[in-house]
């Protein structure tokens, strides 16, 4: 074969390159004193990590890392540094010595612990031989869902995912209690919007945003409803949808965005998502099943009336699992509502607070 090099492992070389890139980025983050530079470098770290996860065939995790780590987390941190100084306080070398030793020690312990891990892709490893294999073998007959990751997160471990959704909602409430919900930006009409003034003259930026925002929102719904067939789902789709709202605020101004997507509406949608998720579980109990047992989502006489053309003709050996399909779709919508509204609420809290008028004689805080 042309170009073939005997003994050369392209995957190993790519892994080594990505590992070196991560180490260099971490060193740059530790060396910089500028908050803005640190946030951008952390976003770059998440992006490289997402690429590495794709190389490791973990597409779902890579998707989450890209949209959450490199996407919305970077935006939220950029909003957070508006409330702080632009540069970190300088620390003497002696005060850095002990944290550096502790970090190196913990890193060495973690590397030593990896020596007992099974080889990558080993079919006899616990992840592939026990519960993981059971999921792979049973998902088709139990649910008829081609994406095993969706089956595990939304059905087999649906109660755990409900807990994660509640934690996200609680995080929004915690941040809002500390920073506010952003209504200050709408109440004080004398304060400039986040992207006001000079941004009004950036015609290209505004036109490009008007083109991209609908596409981003449409892509969020594609990820949402494609999640049972491939990588995606409510968590990733919710973050992408929130990015569309945040982009509107950055380009057209926070006040205009809050007028379109009010903080009270965002809070209500976040709570609605949790209630929708839990409500599906309660419905299953009412119909005689267990909590989040989607097979009991519909009474039998209603399930018998669902036409086959919705999901295509059923295979006699693998009949349609209507409760599983509609139950997972509904709880993923709940996750979408909670995640998207939570991200928007957190952004409103940071951005709205940053618009407080500085007190006379008080030092001005802002980004680099």
Order of helices and strands: HHHHHHHHHHHHHHH
| Sheet/helix structural class | mainly alpha
Distance between the termini: 53 Å
State Rg. 24 Å
Shape assignment: globular
Sheet-strand content, in percent, reads under 5%
Q: State the helicity in percent bands.
A: 55-70%
Domain count = 2
Which residues form runs of ≥5 with pLDDT under 50? 189-199, 355-368
Largest sheet: none
Number of DSSP strand runs: 0
Overall pLDDT: 80
Count the DSSP helices: 15
Notes on the structure:
This protein has 368 residues and is mostly helical. The protein folds into two domains: 107 residues, Up-down Bundle (Four Helix Bundle (Hemerythrin (Met), subunit A)); 213 residues, no CATH class. 67% of the residues lie in helices and 0% in strands. It contains 15 helices and no strands. It starts with 9 loop residues before the first helix and ends in a 15-residue tail after the last helix. The C terminus is likely disordered.
């Amino acid at each position: 074969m042309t170009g073939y090099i005997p003994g050369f492992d392209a995957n190993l070389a790519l892994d080594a390159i990505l590992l070196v890139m991560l180490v260099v980025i971490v060193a740059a983050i530790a060396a910089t004193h500028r908050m803005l530079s640190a946030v951008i470098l952390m976003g770059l770290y998440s992006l490289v990590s997402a690429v590495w996860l794709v190389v490791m065939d973990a597409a779902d995790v890579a998707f989450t890392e890209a949209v959450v780590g490199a996407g919305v987390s970077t935006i939220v941190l950029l909003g957070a540094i508006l409330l702080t100084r632009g540069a970190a306080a300088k620390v003497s070398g002696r005060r850095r010595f002990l944290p550096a030793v502790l970090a190196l020690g913990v890193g060495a312990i973690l590397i030593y612990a990896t020596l007992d891990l099974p080889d990558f892709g080993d079919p006899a490893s616990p992840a592939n031989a026990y519960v993981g294999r059971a999921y792979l073998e049973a998902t088709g007959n139990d649910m008829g869902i081609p994406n095993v990751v969706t089956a595990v997160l939304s059905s087999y471990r649906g109660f755990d995912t409900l807990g994660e959704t509640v934690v996200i909602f609680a995080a929004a409430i915690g941040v809002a209690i500390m920073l506010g919900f952003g209504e200050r930006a709408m109440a004080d009409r004398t304060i400039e919007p986040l992207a006001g003034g000079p941004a009004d003259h950036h015609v290209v930026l505004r036109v490009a945003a008007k083109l991209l925002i609908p596409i981003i929102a449409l892509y969020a719904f594609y990820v949402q409803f494609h999640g049972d067939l491939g990588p995606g789902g409510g968590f990733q789709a919710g973050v992408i949808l929130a990015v569309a709202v945040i982009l509107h605020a950055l380009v057209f101004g926070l006040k205009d965005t809050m007028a379109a997507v009010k903080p009270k509406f965002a809070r209500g949608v976040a709570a609605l998502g949790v209630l929708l998720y839990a409500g599906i579980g309660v419905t299953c109990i009412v119909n005689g099943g267990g909590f989040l047992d989607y097979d009991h989502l519909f009474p039998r006489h209603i399930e018998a009336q669902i036409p086959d053309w919705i999901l295509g003709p059923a295979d006699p050996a693998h009949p349609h699992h209507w409760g599983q399909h509609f139950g997972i779709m509904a709880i993923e919508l709940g996750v979408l509502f909670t995640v998207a509204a939570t991200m928007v609420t957190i952004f409103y809290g940071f951005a709205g607070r940053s618009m407080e008028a500085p007190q006379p004689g008080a030092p001005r805080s802002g980004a680099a």
